[in-house]
Amino acid sequence: MPELPEVEALKDFLTEHLTGHEIVRALPVAISVLKTYDPPLTAVEGREVTVVRRYGKFLALATDGGPYLVTHLARAGWLHWKDPLPSGAPRPGKGPLALRVALETGAGFDLTEAGTQKRLAVYVVADPAEVPGIARLGPDPLAGDFDEGRLAELLSGERRRLKGALRDQSLIAGVGNAYSDEILHAARMSPFKLASSLTPEETARLYQALRTTLTEAVERSRGLAAGRLKAEKKTGLRVHGRTGEPCPVCGDTVREVSFSDSSLQYCPTCQTGGKPLADRRLSRLLK
User: Fold this and answer.
1) pLDDT tens digits, residue range 221-243?
2) Is the dihedral of CA 144, 150, 152, 157 positive or negative?
3) Neighbours of 131 (CB within 10 A)
4) pLDDT exceeds cutoff 80 at 285
5) pLDDT digit string, tens, across residues 263-282
6) Helix or strand run (H / E) with residue 203
7) CA 256 – CA 266 distance, rounded (Å)
8) Sign (positive or negative) of CA dihedral 277, 280, 286, 287
9) Mean pLDDT value of segment 50-69
10) Which string of b and e fits 184-222 if b means at least 16 CB within 10 Å?
11) Hey, which residues does 58 pair with through a beta bridge?
């Protein structure tokens, strides 16, 4: 799933390639991708893109005198820039293509979604705050006013584990499965530690890990073409998606805990005092 650093990089990329250009065609290929109907998708056609903004994991394109085109790429969605776009109308129901946006220059982008769980979402709204997911967002962790005190305030009274708290978009916007693993590894904390149990020293450590991990990921992605962002994300991850590999910090084996629809990775030596966490799904399989 694209998370804050990749969406921030996409925002910068689209700012450079879209701003000042006219949308001449916005074509839904998979009707399920559209989550609004008034104003219609055609309301962005014939209008110039004035600014591109990021809200957590959402991208919003503002049009001159018209509505915003907002998208959330979900778990398996992606944006593909094409110059020029393929000629001819795409065929609905064929392949992963969900939406095509064409500019007056002949360039544009496709939104695609792999797999069978179609969660990629597109909204056409007068104000991004009309999108329910944006309205519920917590503060952006890279905002200038997001300091250590704000993090402590957010975690105070949180009876959830750190892993779940960091992924909650209504608590902190933009962090997902991959970067929550990376942040907790950098902070040397168990993903199962209760958020409300942090000491002031631990809160400071988590805050530093949160800001540093996301900032470095944004910097690695900055300036890259949209098609290279996925590969860059993978190369920068130290524990997420690296089950069975040596931890780059201590050399211990990266372990995994599986859930029904996701998994987390961690280093026992760095994060849990050398003790492996119970993997309930694996335990059930071994019974």
Assistant:
1) 888 778 888 888 989 999 999 99
2) negative
3) 22
4) no
5) 999 999 999 999 999 886 54
6) helix 200-221
7) 6
8) positive
9) 98
10) bbbbbbbbbbebeebeeebbebbbebbbebbeebbebbe
11) 55, 72
Cβ-based neighbours of 166, under 8 Å, separated by 6 or more: 172, 175, 180, 183, 184, 210
The residue behind tokens 């946006």 is: 101
Taking only the tens place, the pLDDT of each residue in 127-172 is 999 999 999 999 999 999 999 999 999 999 899 999 999 999 999 9
- Return the SS3 of 122: strand
What's the token pair of residue 40? 């219609």
Residue 232's H or E segment, with its range, is: helix 229-236
Nearest residue to 118 via CA among 79, 70, 74: 74
- Rounded to an integer, what distance in angstroms lies between the CA atom of residue 211 and that of residue 222? 16
Question: Tokens at residue 246, please?
Answer: 């040596």
Q: Is the pTM of this model over 0.90?
A: yes
